[in-house]
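WARN  no MSA supplied for this record, continuing single-sequence
INFO  ligand: pyridoxal-5'-phosphate
INFO  echoing inputs
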Amino acid sequence: MKRRRSGYSTRAIHGNGTTPPVGSPVSYPIHQSSTFVNPIGSPDDVLYTRYGNNPNQIRLGEKLAALEGSEDAILLSSGMGATSLAHMAVLSPGDHLIASDWIYGGTKKLFRDEFERLGIDVSFANPAKSDGWKQHLRETTRAVFVETPTNPQVRVIDLGPLAELCKSSGARLLVDATIASPINFRPLEHGADIVIHSATKYLNGHSDVIAGAVAGPSGVIERVRELMKMWGQAPDPHAVWLVERGLKTIAVRMATHNSNAQAFAEWASGHPKISKVTYPGLADHPDHEWASRLYEGFGGMVGIVVCGGSPGATTLLRNLKLATHAPSFGGVETLVSEPRYTSHAGQSAAELVKAEIGDGFVRVSVGIEDVSDIISDFESALNNQ
Ligand code: PLP
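INFO  complex generated
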């Protein structure tokens, strides 16, 4: 008989787990130990936290695999660690990577500066062009990387055609789905091979940890584990425990992020001092149709353009009392930042124009406070301009 699969909130709390025995702690303890007592004279794997086989690391990997629907998953010490090792697992010197143009600035820097240095060729494709991907395809293309939704314009990329292109050319499709979280979108269900997360964001959800994750086929995850042993991006057990603790509430957090961001975006759309609002839940967003079809929620990220350009944005940021001016996103608290100084710092003027990060653009990570308080904070901050 086919076993009934539990829902995503249940998986986030229990994984595919069984009932714990009498006397065991309901909250899984932190195994804050670098090393473990090993059997003498045994060829078995040594238990050592840098090797990724600490019980906290293994348990959370299993839970994430249950959420993403992957064979296996692994936690790393940061989202950047996850992105770099996921690619290293499938690429070698001489290989070619096609990366989306619409990605987190740190990832772009990694590809542009480091991958080129390691002998991996990278082409950047414009997802807005229908043949944007195909025109970059080479004999040596072994991987395609996209972020969806994108940071900071919250563009939603349809993975279907990309997955077909990858299958026909023998390339792997890697997707950074940090902004969606597995509650809103699971890329493996849409043809992706590997999913990457900055667990720093929605997976943890409390702005108190830096961590990353990769989910995918067992062979790829095993290779990431081998690389992690050598390159050293293993997460600390306490960080893993914090991510697991945060993950338990991801479904309810995402539901509130989704509804708060929708209400905030609708309010902002009607405000005379905001000239543009980018949110996939709005009918005028270029990807609203895709997003409605593919996603189970539009997420918590909203882009706004404040009238008056940079000085207008600065005044808004100075006047806000509840929303905190800080980089990052995905925590329970509302955060605001100007991507030109944070996620996309150091990019050329041309690159910023391409990424539609113009004067006055502010990224809002809408938190799970009462939405009336969030809106009232922005209303007062704009009225005081
Ligand atoms: N992926 C996305 C979409 C991000 O926005 C970030 C960081 O902001 C990262 C990856 C890198 O994550 P971390 O800061 O955990 O290394």
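The first helix runs from residue 8 to 14.
INFO  checksum written, moving to next record
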